[in-house]
Amino acid sequence: MDQIFTFLFGTRTGVAVLFTIGVVAFAVAAFILEKRTHKLYVDRGPKPNDEDSLF
Fold it and tell me: Per the UniProt record, which residue ranges are transmembrane (predicted)?
């Protein structure tokens, strides 16, 4: 176990592995949360022309 920690935190390759795992984990979490958000907030289509909005 000590060799794993030494590799991950003591070498450039280990830090690169940690960084890559972090990026992949963040991407997977963002993908899952985006799916949940997409189900919660359904796209209602374009607004009619008679609705005035600043946005």
Answer: 15-33
